[in-house]
Amino acid sequence: MDLLTQTIAAIRPLNEEVREQALQRLRDQARPAGSLGMLEPLSARLAAIAGTINVRLANKVVVTCAGDHGVVAEGVSLFPATVTPLMVLNFVGGGASINVLAKHAGARVVVADLGVNHDFDPTLPIFHKKVGKGTGNLAVEPAMSRSAAQRSLEAGIEIVNELCAQGPVDLIGTGDMGIGNTTPATAIIAAFSGIPVEQLTGRGTGVDDAGLQRKISAVRRGLAHNQPNRADALDVLAKVGGYEIGGLGGLVLGAAARGIPVICDGLISTAGALVACELAPAAKPYLFASHRSVEVGHRFMHERLGIQPVLDLGFRLGEGTGAALAMELLDAATRILADIKTFAEVAIQDAQNIEE
After folding, report:
1. Crossing angle, helix 243-257 and helix 233-240, to 10 degrees?
2. Domain check: are 87 and 106 in the same one?
3. Same structural domain for residues 48 and 81?
4. Are 283 and 277 in contact (CB under 8 A)?
5. What is the DSSP code (8-state) at residue 341?
6. What is the rounded CA–CA span in Å between residue 134 and residue 182?
7. Is residue 1 over pLDDT 90?
8. Structural domain of residue 300, as residue ranges?
């Protein structure tokens, strides 16, 4: 049995008995029922994943997956592909946005090369998981072979397994780096949803109107030429995806198989999560959405996944920045469940009249 099949088979349902215990405790707490809004169901789901009311997210990690894309040749980005390896080095050096926000959240950042068109020093402290040096130009050819698509997913799974071998992991955040990668991410949601491309395509790095039209055209041509099969998530990833997008999907699958909650970042991370959940719907309960990007396709990804983002801050950066910020809210959710006293615990009688 290959690693992908083995991992999907290992995903188990959440502990619904613990979820019900959590929901009951939330109802019994010394405050108006539902008054902490979205944190309440988040806390109950985290409890159901961990199998305990007292969840501790002490060991948090953001995995930023990097890759390059042949579709950059279509003029879909403001920046050249040479920026991708430079940003990888910036992440390693601790000088990027994700490094700052992850530190604030108490998370460490690790970087994975899934498909950067650059030969990194093998001693560089990253996950060296390169599937290829950039994908094909999806506008005129498949982004990758089916076997490469599977390899990218399995690379993400391997990263989770290797992180867990190093020590306990309580929460994984997913992030991305790859010039031009909003184009394959848009093509993925277009392939799965059938929604017209122009309704899904945003400006990415901030392209002008002409750049936006080039991007729409590239996605349209890619879908028409490659004919990805929406019923086959691996085919969609191979035809119009990216190596780092596959890696991000593998992170979701690997985390779910190990019972670890995973919080995805923006458009590209969510594209990876979408591929993962189309392959393995059982992974979806382990997945949390950190934020709603200004990229228009992001909302349609959330709707297809049936998940509600925790934040909406107008972000469009990637890297895992939204995931890092949302980690702090998941931390808060665990504490409201475990630490807020119930009416019985504080010996308040006739709670209904007090609330009124």
Report:
1. 150
2. yes
3. no
4. yes
5. P
6. 15
7. no
8. 60-332
Instruction: Verify that 43 and 124 share a domain, yes or no.
Output: no
Closest CA to 63 of 119, 107, 1, 9: 107
- DSSP per-residue string spanning 213-248: HHHHHHHHHHHHHH---TT-HHHHHHHH--HHHHHH
The string of DSSP letters for 253-299 reads: HHHHHTT--EEE-SHHHHHHHHHHHHH-GGGGGGEEE-B--SSTHHH
Instruction: From 231, 218, 213, 208, select the one nearest 181 (Cα to Cα).
Output: 218
Specify whether 193 is located in the same domain as 279: yes
The radius of gyration of the chain from alpha carbons, rounded to an integer in Å, stands at 21
Residues 6+ apart with CB under 8 A from 147: none
Res 356: pLDDT: 44
- Tell me how many domains the chain contains: 2
- How far apart CA 235 and CA 220 sit, in angstroms, is 17
Taking only the tens place, the pLDDT of each residue in 220-249 is 999 999 999 999 999 999 999 999 999 999
CATH number at residue 195: 3.40.50.10210
278 a catalytic residue: no
**Residue type, position 183, single letter:** T
Identify the helix (H) or strand (E) that includes residue 65: strand 60-67
- Whether residues 350 and 268 fall in one domain: no
The residues, any chain, with a CB within 8 Å of residue 127's CB and separated by 6 or more, are 63, 110, 111, 112, 113, 155, 159, 162
Measure the CA–CA gap between 250 and 2, rounded to whole angstroms.
13
Q: Which of 40, 158, 295, 319 is catalytic?
A: 319
Residue with tokens 């390693």: 92
Cα–Cα dist 200/304, whole Å: 13
Same domain, 205 and 341: no
- Encoding tokens for residue 331? 């931390």
